[in-house]
Design goal:
Helix content is 79%, strand content 0%. With 184 residues, it is mainly alpha-helical. The longest helix is centred in the first third of the chain and has 25 residues.
Length: 184
């Protein structure tokens, strides 16, 4: 694939990421993706012959890797400090988007978990990637139970983001940050 092809593919993925983060799987229609990306319609099927599911999976993979990198690089002194900083960063992003851009996986997972095996598997793989990154951090902090706490931490973060986005208020994230010491 040449430079122009790679740029077109990247534009399609970026547009899909934005749409799934704000509107979920069903809100990210192919016509809207093509329009938002500025790519020719034929390019969509050239780069993603599997159609929307392949494109959404690529968007989930890319955004999942970006968030895993953030998890790996947040500077923190211990596990609770790490969780507080993660909650603050995600809250900053959510509020900066006027509460429209949440987790790239949550909305898609809720839309497709019982009806679309391919996309559900992409959501699952992304969550597992984040769990691995969180587990690595907890191990690095010397946490005594990283296996048990990893899923709890991810569930708390995801739940906090959903509540904050729904209420259009950072309070759920602040409350999590204030009590994180006792939770993890």
């Amino acid at each position: 694939m040449g430079k122009k092809g790679a740029e077109t593919r990247s534009k399609l993925i970026r547009a899909t990421r934005s749409l799934i983060e704000s509107q979920g799987y069903f809100g990210a229609g192919l016509n809207q993706i093509v329009q938002d990306s500025g790519a020719p319609r034929g390019s969509l099927y050239f780069h993603f012959p599997g159609g929307k599911d392949e494109l959404v999976s690529a968007a989930l993979t890319e955004s999942g890797a970006d968030i895993a990198q953030i998890i790996r690089t947040i500077e923190a002194s211990d596990a609770p400090d790490f969780a507080r900083k993660m909650l603050t960063l995600l809250g900053d992003q959510l509020e900066a988007s006027d509460w429209t851009i949440g987790c790239p996986v949550a909305a898609v997972a809720l839309d497709t978990a019982s009806t679309n095996t391919a996309v559900r598997q992409s959501c699952s793989a992304t969550y597992r990637l984040w769990e691995a990154a969180i587990r690595e951090r907890l191990i690095g902090f010397g946490h005594p139970e990283p296996e048990r706490v990893t899923t709890v931490a991810l569930a708390l973060i995801e739940g906090g983001l959903i509540l904050a986005r729904t209420h259009r208020d950072r309070r759920p994230l602040r409350q999590l940050a204030d009590t994180i010491d006792t939770l993890i």
